[in-house]
Please model this.
Amino acid sequence: MGSYSNESTDYSVKIPTIKFTKLFINGEFVDSLSGNTFETIDPRNGEVIARVAEGDTKDVDLAVKVARAAFDHGPWPRMSGSERGKIMMKFADLIDQNVEELATLDALDAGKLFSMGKAVDIPQAANSLRYYAGAADKIHGTVLKMSRPLQAYTLAEPIGLVGAIIPWNYPTTMFFLKVSPALAAGCTIVIKPAEQTPLSALFYAHLAKLAGIPDGVLNVITGFGPTAGAAIASHMDIDMVNFTGSGEVGREVMKASANSNLKPVSLELGGKSPMLIFDDADVDIASELALFGFLCNKGEICVAVTRVYVQEGIYDELVKKLEEKAKAWVVGDPFDPQVQQGPQVSKEQFDKILSYIEHGKREGATLLTGGKPIGQNSGYYIEPTIFTDAKEDMLIVKDEIFGPVLSLMKFKTIEEGIKRANDSKYGLAAGIVTKDLNIANTVSRSLKAGSIWINCYFAFDSDSPFGGFKMSGFGKDFGMESLNKHLQVKSVVTPIYNSPWL
Model:
């Protein structure tokens, strides 16, 4: 079990007044056309933070109408890349000026660590804007060498109006994974944040307006997946959908595209990421990587290490160290700087995780530590939970749990480790811990996953493409690959007459 912190300490964070709760359409905050609202809940205690406008199909139609006009007739795609980049740089500066309030919103809404938001999530969002702002004036086609008397070149043009649907686990990070490259490419956007975590997205819309992003370019529709999300996925005037979420909903997004205008889709879906720890690994380093790999962001991260395969020579030692570290892990209020794990995002997610833990017990896995709710209040806190003696046919090993739950398993040979690590429908990320370069090279080339991290984990960077294999989806976030998916290539060809050479 982990330890729970509920002591009265001298830490203090000023909880701001919630300023923005309406839809953001055409540069203005407006009520939903229905007038309906919904509650956003504080996972620390189950209390209502605010009521937020509930957008639905009609609101999406309105947002698409203005975003379509902004793309077809407005200044944003017609600006030079350097002009767009300057506005994006200003947007990033405004984020830096509001770090504390933005980190507070994500801590309130999602149960995320306030300290991590201030130090990592919010600054990285600003840096994402800067990265793509720097690329905005470097979009170009190529001159082609034709085999006949023809002059030809390609144009890289913005794909148009992008619909984005993002999850609740990283509200800020996900917002800018979708928005930054789209803005740089010259696209317009209608984005739906998760209904559990709408508050920071609305604040970012406000900052976008202050930065000078033209009206209609960025529109935020808060609401629910079956209504607002489905309307985005199926809309005939949206040119592309960029989705991060579950495989189940990803399938519905693909169906909606096929049944509407065959818009291209980019899907970053679930994961069940393995970590392979070999006999030559430093056990202290390996146990730290495994611990943080499954407990970072309370396990609510698509690339969480949820299957750790340990070679038999160091298995017992690593199990002991990992158990000790998990028991010392501090769970509690995400505003407490001593806390390492906040509450799960919602009661629904809390119950789902506990249900999987019960499945693990019934299926015969050994509960090494944790497995229970923790704390005395009504918050959604769960102990760090580790199972041993798990097998690949168990639900806790097959399914994405999205919580602080780890399965530890033993393997003998490199070949066995690779085979078992690949025995999953997912292929988002994987970790390798070894001092042997040959092992690292062999295993990294053998694992079927989009990101392989060797002797590190969560090694994200703006320049490193991220996306899955198999049922973890397709399409890349981060890097120039993400910018390129917001562009479409056009070939332009003219004849050449009486040329002395081709």
Remarks:
- The first strand starts at residue 3 and ends at 5.
